[in-house]
Design brief:
It is built from nine helices and seven strands; from the N terminus they run H-H-H-E-H-E-H-E-E-H-E-H-H-H-E-E. By secondary structure, the chain is of the alpha/beta class. The protein has one domain: Vaccinia Virus protein VP39 (Rossmann fold), CATH 3.40.50.150.
């Protein structure tokens, strides 16, 4: 079992090349993040946003482009990843940062929007459920959670299909062998859960309605609203 320090070290080592490799390692990258952006509330003008597991700030940058007046707080276990985010947002006073474990989240009704990308799947299932509760509590009434993440196949056979299809697609995309081996090493820390289970856990945490905006094999965009 990998602990938080193990996961931090894995991402510290790949921080500088992470953005370069991510589009090749996430099949359907543009469509996946496009679905996440389409899920954002159109009426928001200057939302307070929390990005959990923000890494290099890639998803946060997309949200910042959609909401130029947004204030966005980025958290991540890896200081090296956040260092890349600081470079990305250099000079932007609306962006703040914290090196933080997900389960340290304690910000009652502080945010209009909580986002996360390719991070929560590192938690054990019980901790995912705890985090969903904390995310719900962190949202203001009427707030939205949008999570871009990996999911496990609903059966052992489908999980094997997911794995084989991912490998074929990333190789077809031209990922380098070094980047692939790094990704496979990081995947040893994955604790993917089925999408249907996670939607149920969101509902248990209080989200209503819960939504899945896109799902294709290993990757999905899902979340939910906090009642107004």
């Amino acid at each position: 079992m990998h602990n938080a320090c193990d996961i931090r070290d894995l991402f510290d080592r790949c921080a500088t090349a992470y953005d370069q490799d991510r589009p090749k390692l996430v099949p359907g990258f543009a469509q996946l993040y496009g679905a996440a952006l389409q899920a954002l509330p159109q009426s928001a003008v200057a939302p307070e946003v929390l990005d959990l597991g923000a890494g290099t700030g890639l998803f946060a940058a997309m949200v910042a482009a959609a909401y130029p007046q947004a204030s966005i707080h980025l958290t991540d276990l890896s200081e090296a990843m956040l260092a890349q985010a600081r470079l990305r947002f250099q000079g932007n006073p609306r962006i703040s940062y914290a090196v933080q474990d997900h389960l340290q989240l304690n910000a009652p009704a502080a945010y209009d929007l909580v986002i996360s990308a390719l991070s929560i799947h590192h938690l054990e299932d019980a901790d995912k459920r705890r985090l969903f509760e904390k995310m719900y509590q962190a949202l203001r009434p009427g707030g939205l959670l949008v999570n871009v993440d990996q999911v496990r196949g609903p059966s052992a056979a489908e999980e094997e299909v997911y794995s084989q299809q991912w490998l074929a697609e990333v190789r077809a995309a031209g990922v380098s062998e070094a980047a692939l081996q790094q990704a496979l090493e990081r995947m040893q820390a994955d604790r993917n859960a089925p999408l249907t289970d996670q939607l149920a856990w969101l509902a248990d945490a209080g989200f209503a309605p819960v939504e899945c905006w896109r799902s294709r094999c290993r990757f999905a965009v899902f979340g939910g609203w906090k009642r107004g």
